[in-house]
Amino acid sequence: xxxxxxxxxxxxxxxxxxxxxxxxxxxxxxxxxxxxxxxxxxxxxxxxxxxxxxxxxxxxxxxxxxxxxxxxxxxxxxxxxxxxxxxxxxxxxxxxxxxxxxxxxxxxxxxxxxxxxxxxxxxxxxxxxxxxxxxxxxxxxxxxxxxxxxxxxxxxxxxxxxxxxxxxxxxxxxxxxxxxxxxxxxxxxxxxxxxxxxxxxxxxxxxxxxxxxxxxxxxxxxxxxxxxxxxxxxxxxxxxxxxxxxxxxxxxxxxxxxxxxxxxxxxxxxxxxxxxxxxxxxxxxxxxxxxxxxxxxxxxxxxxxxxxxxxxxxxxxxxxxxxxxxxxxxxxxxxxxxxxxxxxxxxxxxxxxxxxxxx
Amino acid sequence: xxxxxxxxxxxxxxxxxxxxxxxxxxxxxxxxxxxxxxxxxxxxxxxxxxxxxxxxxxxxxxxxxxxxxxxxxxxxxxxxxxxxxxxxxxxxxxxxxxxxxxxxxxxxxxxxxxxxxxxxxxxxxxxxxxxxxxxxxxxxxxxxxxxxxxxxxxxxxxxxxxxxxxxxxxxxxxxxxxxxxxxxxxxxxxxxxxxxxxxxxxxxxxxxxxxxxxxxxxxxxxxxxxxxxxxxxxxxxxxxxxxx
Lengths: 359, 244
Hints:
Number of helices of chain B: 10
Largest sheet of chain B: 2 strands, antiparallel
Structural class of chain A: mainly alpha
Largest sheet of chain A: none
Order of helices and strands of chain B: HHHHHHHHHHEE
Radius of gyration of chain A: 36 Å
Distance between the termini of chain A: 81 Å
Mean pLDDT of chain B: 86
Order of helices and strands of chain A: HHHHHHHHHHHHHHHHHH
Number of helices of chain A: 18
Oligomer: heterodimer
Mean pLDDT of chain A: 85
Number of strands of chain A: 0
Shape of chain A: elongated
Strand order of the largest sheet of chain B: 1-2
Radius of gyration of chain B: 23 Å
Distance between the termini of chain B: 51 Å
CATH class of the largest domain in chain A: Mainly Alpha
Strand content of chain B: under 5%
Low-confidence stretches of chain B: 17-23, 238-244
Largest interface: A-B, 28 and 37 residues
Number of domains of chain A: 3
């Protein structure tokens, strides 16, 4: 019974989900119906020939209603009121068309209510339960909303992710510079981050690794130190691939650290990775260690694999320049004495570290 | 007593009966639709009108929410919240949302009837718009209630139940979101109380005045395939794309 009773309403409800407001047209078309029905075209033609043709006007309105073009139907019928204002059929149809138009608005209102409830639900979960996924869902609906951003920052602090919280809070500070609570939140998050940083630097094992992750704030002064420490902790917990990634990231931030260079060379040897980023990092590490001739091959390979990789061309040019100097020195050493030259060449031209040195 | 005297008496009684309303005209179709929202409709429990039923369900939901808040275990809270959900969102048993939407639908049916007054035609879309906030709260209660019913943490459930209590209270009495010290002072704060008031004001404006519609008319309105509403005088009991 209910289904039969509300079939018209269901049709409008479904339509209101997908259709924008209709634009008025006299030719039987509207935005909701790109192809006018035959009935609409015929009625429209008859109406153009004789604007006083009531039958044609009613037929056109009927056809427009059938195509969910409620607003257009109302306009067609309202125009007819000038000449047939007292006609019962026109008035009845006009009432029906206006009602359909209002119902469309009504269902749009119900749909908005559903959307608003979803947003409120996500805000509730974000604010009260520190549900970070819910915060993200709310932000997807209201991107850049300072209140939602603050709620997400609070949720991140509760989830012991202060570095991420700080990134968001700094953004909120730009959006609402006069909000004193933002500064308080930044101070609280920074205190939490410093505590994690301390654990990261001084503890060992899984807890130290997690602390490093919590403290890692991209762009901050201590990013290099945290990435390096993370590499060391990962290497110690036998996670060479992740450790290599961390060292490479540290090396990109601050090239020239010898201990990182040695670690990259050892781990890239062991992992056997041949991707452009690893090859570039290996070449750069070899340059750091003053092994320019060895650096040439991985840098050239990296450039072939990824010609747009930042800094590789510069590093390769630097390696080529230094390799020439290095070659001249080797040649000079070779002429000076075979015993010295022999020991040097074994060390300088091998990818492996000398047996008396630890990487 | 002469025949003339008897005839006079009969005519007098007839006139008196007419004057006292014993012979009445059927209500307008528009008023019967309003009666479905207000007084009774034959498909609901106890044949209550949709608005009356919405009020009952709103009270049931709030009572169950308070019971959930007093729950000592997660299981107790879940059981009470399930009752809140039934009273709020059930379609089969005419929960608050369903009853209220149907009430608004019938007010709109009234507005599209051939005999609808200008008052009803103008008021219907306003009433339909003004139910939106209660519907929104119902949707939110459904989402929060689902969290509780499927959740495993009593602490989290308690947080959601606290919110559900506020929402069910607001659905009954309205809220004060603009903090002007008045509950339901604007449509976006409305609860059932304000909606009922708005409905009553619309009814009071009716000319000719709205009178409580007799049950026979309430339960025998059918819609013809042409879309026209008529009373089922032949008692066909049929379903001609209509109410019966």
